[in-house]
Amino acid sequence: MNPSDATSLVRDWLLDQGADLPEATDLLPALAAQLGAVGVPVDRMLVATLIVHPQADAYGIEWSKESAVASTVVQPRRRFEAIRYPNNPIDRTNGRTTALHLRLEPGESDPVLGGLARAGYRDFMAMPLVIGGCFKGAVTLATRAESGFHADHAMVFQGCMGALRAVLRPHITALVQRTLLRAYLGHDAGDRVHQGQVARGDGETLRTAIWFSDLRGFTNLTATLPRATLLGLLNDVFEVLVNSVHAHGGQVL
Questions:
Q1: pLDDT tens digits, residue range 144-196?
Q2: What is the pLDDT of residue 158?
Q3: Where do the H-state alpha helices sit in the chain?
Q4: pLDDT tens-digit profile of 60-119?
Q5: Which of 113, 118, 159, 244 is most buried, by the most CB atoms less than 10 A from its CB?
Q6: Of 240, 237, 251, residue with least CA distance to 185
Q7: Is the pLDDT of residue 250 over 60?
Q8: What is the pLDDT of residue 184?
C-alpha cells in the first residue's frame, strides 16, 4: 500500500473510531493494530507528556506487543530528572516536522535507546507532541523487525500526527485535571469531583480515621540542619508514611 493511502486510512480511523475510545490506554493498542494493518511494524508505542503535578514532571502511556494492554506511568521528579539528560530522544523531537528516526544498535550508549536495544528493539521513531502550540512531549514507536522502519513508515507516522494530536488532546486535558484533583483532594474525592459530583450537598458518608504523627527531635533538627537537607528528610519520611497508607486503601490530602 502506498504511504498516501495508508496515511488516509489511519488518519480517518483516528478521527472517527479512535476519537470515540474512552481512554488513551484504549487508543494505543488499537492504533498499533491500525498501523500494523497498513504495514508499519509497531511493537512498542509511548506517549510521553509533561504534566502539572506537585511530585511528578511527566506522564507516560505505554503499550507493547508483549503486554497487549497499555499502561500508565507517572514519572516522579527524581526519576524524570534522571532521564532528562542532554540530547535525550524526547527533547530531540522538539521543533521537528519530520520523524526522528534512529537505528538501535547493540551497545547503544544512550540510556533510553540502549534500554530499548537490550530489550530486542531494532528501530525507533519519534514525533513531537504539540498541544495548543506548545511542546508537551513526544509520541514514540519502536519495532523488533530486523529490517526496521522504512521511509514509507516514517511518512505514514508523520502524516497521522495531526489527527493523533487532536485525539490525544482531550485525554491529556482530562489527565491533568484528574491528576491535580487526586493530588489535592485524594484519589476517591478527586475522581468523584472529576466525574461531576460538585453540586452543593453532594457527598458520601464514610468511616474514617485521621492519623497524626510527629518526627522525634524535629524541633532540634530545624535548628541544626540546612533547609535543603531538612526538606529532603521530610520528603523521605512522608514517602514512607504515604506509601503505607495507600497500601491499605487510605488517602492522603
A1: 999 999 999 999 999 999 999 999 888 877 777 777 777 777 777 777 776 77
A2: 94
A3: 3-16, 24-37, 77-83, 89-92, 111-118, 151-185, 187-194, 218-224, 227-247
A4: 788 998 887 777 776 655 555 555 677 888 888 988 889 999 999 888 888 888 999 999
A5: 113
A6: 251
A7: yes
A8: 74
Question: What single letter denotes the amino acid at residue 131?
Answer: I
Predicted model pTM: 0.73
Q: SS3 of 137, please?
A: strand
**From CA 115, how far away is CA 151, in angstroms rounded?**
24
Strands across the sheet with 71-76, in order?
A: 71-76, 56-64, 44-50, 134-143, 123-131, 100-103
* CA atoms of 192 and 23, how far apart (whole Å): 17
Mean pLDDT of the chain: 85
Q: Which of these, 122, 155, 125, 158, lies nearest to 141 by C-alpha position?
A: 125
Contact, 249 vs 243, CB < 8 A?
no
Of all helices (H) and strands (E), which one includes residue 130?
strand 123-131
Distance CA(238)–CA(108), nearest Å, equals: 38
Q: How far apart are CA 25 and CA 129, in angstroms?
A: 17
Measured at the alpha carbon of residue 177, what is the angle toward residues 52 and 74, in degrees to the nearest 5? Answer: 50
Q: Are 41 and 146 in contact (CB under 8 A)?
A: no
In which residue are the cell numbers 502539572 written? 52
